[in-house]
Write a structure and sequence with these properties.
The chain is an all-alpha fold and 288 residues long. Helix content is 76%, strand content 0%. It contains twelve helices and no strands. Helix 1 runs antiparallel to helix 8, helix 6 packs across helix 7 (125-136) and helix 10 (215-242) packs antiparallel against helix 12 (261-284).
């Protein structure tokens, strides 16, 4: 816990507010670009023919999985470091609202620039490495702004990497009874080794495939389509059916008795969420 608090938490308290402030500045700048109106229209005008399809819903759930680190164990690991009496419900609500807010702000930055630059609206690395540079090019001292932004982006990505690193490190430390330093080194070396192999699979190792996929694509498919929904499914089943009910209530309501929302929450965790996660899992495998 001290490693997280003295390292990641201390850095995040500085990096994240500065990164958010820069995004707000970029929102203002994007609003002045020629394609701003078209970008806003694309972002906020719903397409009802596509909005309620199975593919759209599954994609939205998948985005939530990655964005909130659901199914990775990162949230559970960090929650174990909470001080006694911390509101799990309040923290979960704050994380969800802030995550959604930042996503909307990023959209207000990206899409006006996409249409101003005549690019196709898409997703992934192209938005960061093609669209954002076009925004910075129109700002005075663009080199300085872009350097600061991408440096902060690297640090933000590092915090996400450490959060996933921490889950495995904490497991090895506690289950294998090793020191934190040794556990961290084991995870780092193994992760680095797999990262090297995955990177090589995009170049000289492209000819070596698993079921027609490169190692990089295989790891991506295994993580996104199998492990994340499966872990989330087992978590719901454990919390809903196996986890001690009294302990569950104490974690959610440390300072008061359960209120009217509690029965609904129990019902969702026990029945609704597992059904949706099972559908997601089967859909990702291409069975339905």
């Amino acid at each position: 816990a001290m490693g997280v608090q003295q390292g990641l938490e201390r850095i995040s308290k500085i990096v994240m507010p500065v990164l958010l402030l820069m995004l707000v500045v970029l929102v203002v700048h994007s609003a002045t670009m020629s394609g701003a109106a078209e970008g806003y229209r694309f972002l906020f005008t719903p397409d009802f023919e596509k909005a309620f399809t199975v593919k759209t819903i599954v994609s939205a759930i998948g985005q939530a999985f990655f964005s909130l680190s659901i199914g990775l164990g990162a949230m559970i690991t960090y929650a174990s470091y909470f001080k006694s009496g911390t509101s799990v419900r309040g923290t979960a609500l704050q994380v969800t609202l802030l995550d959604t807010l930042v996503a909307v702000i990023a959209g207000l930055v990206i899409f006006p620039a996409v249409f101003s630059a005549g690019l196709e609206p898409g997703s992934g690395p192209s938005l960061v490495f093609i669209t954002l540079p076009s925004i910075f090019s129109g700002i005075s001292m663009s080199a300085l702004w872009s350097t600061i932004f991408f440096l902060l982006l690297v640090l933000a990505a590092l915090t996400s990497t450490i959060s996933m690193h921490e889950s495995v490190t904490a497991y090895i430390e506690e289950e294998w009874h090793l020191s934190r330093r040794v556990a961290a080194w084991i995870v780092t070396l193994f992760t680095g080794f797999m990262a090297i192999l995955a990177s090589l699979s995009l170049g000289i190792g492209k000819g070596y495939t698993i079921c027609g996929l490169t190692l990089f694509d295989s790891l991506d498919y295994l993580t996104a389509n199998i492990l994340l929904p499966l872990c989330a499914l087992f978590t719901c089943l454990f919390v809903g059916w196996k986890f001690d009910r009294k302990t569950f209530e104490q974690q959610l309501y440390p300072d008061c008795r359960p209120n009217g929302e509690y029965p609904l929450l129990r019902f969702l965790i026990k029945f609704v969420c597992p059904i949706f996660l099972l559908i997601l899992f089967v859909y990702n495998l291409g069975i339905i």
